[in-house]
Amino acid sequence: MTHVLLLGGTSEASALARALSQAGIAAVFSYAGATRAPLAQPLPTRCGGFGGVAGLVQFIRAQGITHVVDATHPFAAQMSRHACLACAETGSALLALERAPWQPQPGDCWHAVADMAAAAAALPAAPSRVFLAVGRKQLDAFAVQPQHHYLLRLVDAPDALPLPQASVVLGRGPFSAEDDLALLRQHRIEWVVAKNAGGEATRGKLDAARALGLPVVMVQRPALPARASVQSVAQVLDWLGQGGLGHGPGRAGGPASPPAVASAASATPADPA
């Protein structure tokens, strides 16, 4: 009997949860616990870490999990790596539901960087007004540039901030380009820092930055082990209907497997920024 572990935290994961529930497929939805009030799901839900690879292996075996779908945020690299290792150990089938990364459009002024430290270093020396659209866990990297005024958009109000000059707005995506254009104008933003999360829910800030001619420091996705991946809920359902023939990371299992690519980059509802 199919029993799915859905590693969630994105809008795509929520859409898949609804589809699994409607199809009557047994599944457990797992949140990382990055937000205080995650969206309710139509599946049995757990929240929090597993306790590393060993804890995830124990959970998979104890719950009789046959299939794991990694629909975590593209920057939740540790969870995705743990899923690859745990599925290799247990023999559970693994599939990633991944968004395509954003691509620069005509009129964009992107500065691609490898990580948050490089993003902070890419900002100018002169004091500037920066929309820091990277989530609350990544703020420490920008403490080395305290001369800037940072605008943060978060799901939950922070207890404390490592940045001496910061404004916080609370919100949960999706955000339209019109709303983000108004936000950037209201706060007189001069630079945008973003993670290349992909998807539609938070791309409005990029459209707004293009309209205003603002530079964007774009943090690239972390590298992950190769694993089979798809980009739609329908493809996941097709895979489950075929018995999830791919077992372990990166093995698609033969010609009956869904269209998939070997992913070398990947893990809150969708990033609030």
From TrEMBL:
Record pathway: Cofactor biosynthesis; adenosylcobalamin biosynthesis
Pfam families assigned to the protein according to its UniProt record, in alphabetical order: CbiJ
Stretches with biased composition (Low complexity): 259-273
InterPro entries the UniProt entry points to: Precorrin-6x_reduct
Domain of life, source organism: Bacteria
Location of the region described as Disordered in the Swiss-Prot/TrEMBL record: 247-273
The EC number(s) this enzyme carries: 1.3.1.106
Biological-process GO terms, alphabetical: cobalamin biosynthetic process
GO MF annotation list: precorrin-6A reductase activity
Class of enzymatic activity (EC top level): oxidoreductase
Entry keywords, A to Z: Cobalamin biosynthesis, Oxidoreductase
Protein name (Swiss-Prot/TrEMBL): Cobalt-precorrin-6A reductase
Source organism per UniProt: Allofranklinella schreckenbergeri
